[in-house]
Give the backbone structure.
Amino acid sequence: MATLKLGVLGSGSGSNMQSIVDAIEKGELDAEIKIVLADVKDAYILERAAKHNIPHQWIDCSPWKTRLDTTGEETAIRLLKEAGCDTVVLAGFMRIVKPRLLEAFPMRVLNIHPALLPAFPGVHSWTQALDYGCKVAGVTVHFVDAGTDSGPIIVQKCVPVLEDDTPETLHARIQVQEHLAFPEALKLLSEGRLRVEGRRVHIS
Ligand code: GRF
């Protein structure tokens, strides 16, 4: 058991980061957020970090929209290391991380994806689930590997798809579970209860 030293990467509202902050503040999760990095200058996740006195910074990840370029990646690795992070949390980070970051934090990069993987990787997965006619949807927290939303699964939670759902109502229902799933996965990690064997994550 060791206090996790988290570095959070995000692009948007940061509600998942907030759920992690709340779990730490309630004493439910043994972790400390050392730094928050965002690739979007005015992302609300940076404001949330400021409110909690967490060091935070915008990192320039251009020119590609969905891929972390080499400069952005090197900056992120340097800042995360300088801040003393041992674990990286992708909390709504809308870019595909590259191998260098994964090598810098082997099996210590976690992502949250709003679908029951391996169904519906990529963007707007709740809309994909709705359009497909799924009766259940959900959320997955997983270790990140070199693929897209493809690493070993740590926690999944389901929600029903209701008759009158819109993409917005379904996403909102999924987000409630996201905010439980990420702290839960991090707690298991902090307690040393995860063992990865191939694709399977065994929980002791
Ligand atoms: C969440 O739905 C997450 O699953 C996805 O991006 C969204 C981020 O939301 N990867 P937030 O910024 O944490 O509020």
